[in-house]
């Protein structure tokens, strides 16, 4: 066969292969609130610690989001953004300050440019306050009830009231500049979690009884819903169904490590009643001991199936139209870490499980965390039927190590 004929055959075959996955469950559209996601891939919020010292976007920040917008996912959730510069966990964390004209302009032009170039992905921003995880080397540590080895200045109700107002103002601003939603962070041990934990048994407006501990989350959701009263702007939350530590979110009492999911399910139902249309399932927290519950690696692969089970249970407990997004799946990759020798590796990979669980109705979308560092273009490659080109995350924890060291985060394997 001549060179030209061969090239045309290859092109024809590639063309035939393209779109091969468009009929798969992961490729289906999904209604979330008043919006439509083009497929079932959601990019997790992943802090990159690459802002400038005023919390502004750098070239690295912009490059990362441009890749993610181009990468084909139906939903892109922007990393944890602080609204309080004085209390943050990462020195180079991104800041959203609606009172600062320069900061507003930076956000405005970023969202305008991304939306003009890439109108398809639903773009959501994760809003956060670090609370006791704020690093004392460069910011103020505040807490709801001091913990051994952590401590921090005790918060009062007026401060928390103000924090809720700030979240609502930030959401309104993001709506006005063209974002599609907010992810209110109630996970991984940050302030939202700290308030919700049974450990917060100090009797105050936001502590003690469940009614008091859930007030922060519920009031915030109500205020955001009121500030942005349209189904075209999504309100959702990333929730640690349980943290894995005594007294943590999803545990039975202030000193107990026993699981009790009643409160975390009540949290999600309560948020749903107040306007939340999506939830990102997660487990564990950012403290070293519980990191692997959040980010399973090959020594803790059973945690992946815990994520799937939790997402499925959450889905069953909520309204059918509420979107549940399962996290903690990167380890599955192409089945490389398959420990179940009864099934073949390809039946234990990320794409297989994503399709299977969506088809069964166990959850609605899969979230890509570390996998989105390893390959921001995974959704596009899958939709186009070129899975062979995907760079699979090795779950080596290299990116997590950079975050812990306060260094700019990237994949240390594929971005060498
Ligand atoms: C470097 C790094 C940064 C992260 N930043 C955030 C963040 O900003 N917000 C958040 O909710 N979770 C954050 N996470 C947790 C991930 O979003 C996700 O829940 C976790 O990595 C598990 O998903 P995976 O198995 O797909 O990686 C981070 C994790 C890592 C490793
Ligand atoms: S550094 Fe390791 S864990 Fe992080 S994205 Fe790359 S391969 Fe995955």
CATH architecture annotation name:
Alpha-Beta Barrel
- H/E order of the elements? HEEEHEHEEEHEHHHEHEHHEHEHHH
Category by helix and strand content: alpha/beta
Task: Say how many strands there are.
Answer: 12
In round numbers, the mean pLDDT is: 94
Task: Tally the helices.
Answer: 14
Radius of gyration, rounded? 21 Å
CATH superfamily: Aldolase class I
Strand content is 5-15%
Biggest β-sheet description: 8 strands, parallel, barrel
Which topology does CATH recognise? Answer: TIM Barrel
Shape category:
globular
Ligands bound, unique: flavin mononucleotide, iron/sulfur cluster
Q: Give the CATH level 1 class.
A: Alpha Beta
Beginning-to-end CA distance, first to last residue: 40 Å
How many discrete structural domains?
A: 1
The main sheet orders its strands as: 3-4-5-8-9-10-11-12
Describe the protein's architecture and organization:
By secondary structure, the chain is of the alpha/beta class. The chain has a single domain, classed as TIM Barrel (Alpha-Beta Barrel), CATH 3.20.20.70. Helix content is 36%, strand content 13%. The chain contains 14 helices and twelve strands. It has helices at residues 3-17, 59-70, 101-117, 157-176, 191-196, 210-213, 215-227, 262-273, 291-294, 302-317, 350-360, 370-374, 378-383, 398-404; strands at 30-32, 35-37, 41-43, 75-82, 122-128, 142-143, 153-154, 181-186, 234-240, 278-282, 323-326, 365-368. The chain has an eight-stranded parallel barrel with strand order 3-4-5-8-9-10-11-12, surrounded by five helices. The protein has a two-stranded antiparallel ribbon with strand order 1-2. Strand 11, helix 11 and strand 12 form a beta-alpha-beta unit. Helix 4 (157-176) packs parallel to helix 7. The longest helix is centred in the middle third of the chain and has 20 residues, at 157-176. Residues 6-17 have low confidence and may be disordered. Bound molecules: flavin mononucleotide and iron/sulfur cluster (SF4). Residues 370, 373-374, 393-399, 411-413 line the site of iron/sulfur cluster (SF4).
């Amino acid at each position: 066969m001549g060179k030209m004929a061969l090239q045309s055959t290859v092109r024809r075959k590639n063309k035939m292969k393209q779109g091969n996955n468009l009929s798969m469950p992961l490729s289906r559209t999904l209604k979330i609130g008043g919006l439509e996601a083009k497929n079932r891939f959601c990019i997790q919020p992943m802090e990159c610690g690459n802002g400038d010292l005023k919390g502004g976007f750098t070239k690295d920040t912009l490059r990362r989001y441009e890749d993610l917008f181009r990468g084909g996912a139906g939903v892109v959730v922007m990393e944890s953004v602080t609204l309080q510069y004085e209390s943050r966990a990462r020195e180079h964390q991104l800041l959203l300050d609606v009172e600062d004209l320069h900061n507003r302009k930076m956000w405005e032009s970023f969202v305008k440019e991304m939306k003009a170039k890439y109108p398809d992905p639903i773009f959501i921003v994760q809003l956060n306050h670090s609370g006791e995880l704020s690093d004392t080397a460069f910011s103020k540590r505040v807490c709801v009830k001091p913990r051994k080895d952590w401590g921090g200045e005790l918060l009062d109700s007026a401060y928390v009231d103000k924090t809720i107002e700030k979240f609502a103002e930030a959401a309104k601003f993001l709506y006005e500049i063209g974002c599609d939603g907010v992810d209110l962070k109630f996970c991984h041990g940050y302030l939202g979690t700290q308030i919700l934990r049974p450990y917060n048994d100090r009797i105050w407006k936001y502590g003690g009884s469940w009614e008091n501990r859930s007030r922060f989350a519920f009031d915030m959701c109500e205020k955001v819903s009121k500030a942005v009263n349209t189904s075209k702007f999504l309100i959702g939350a990333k929730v640690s169904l349980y943290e894995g530590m005594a007294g943590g979110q999803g545990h039975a009492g202030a000193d107990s490590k026993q699981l009790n999911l009643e409160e975390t399910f009540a949290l999600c139902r309560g948020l749903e009643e107040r306007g939340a249309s999506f939830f990102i399932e997660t487990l564990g927290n950012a403290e070293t001991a519980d990191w692997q519950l959040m980010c399973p690696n090959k020594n803790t692969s059973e945690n992946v199936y815990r994520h799937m089970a939790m997402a499925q249970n959450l889905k069953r407990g909520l309204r059918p139209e509420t979107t549940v997004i399962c996290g903690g799946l990167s380890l599955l990759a192409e089945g490389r870490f398959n420990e179940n020798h009864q099934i073949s590796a390809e039946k234990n990979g990320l794409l297989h499980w994503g399709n299977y669980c969506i088809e069964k109705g166990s959850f609605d979308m899969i979230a890509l965390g570390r996998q989105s560092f390893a390959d921001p273009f995974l959704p596009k490659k899958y939709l186009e039927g070129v899975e062979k080109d995907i760079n699979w995350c090795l779950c080596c924890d290299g990116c997590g190590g950079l975050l812990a060291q306060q260094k700019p985060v990237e994949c240390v394997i594929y971005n060498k």
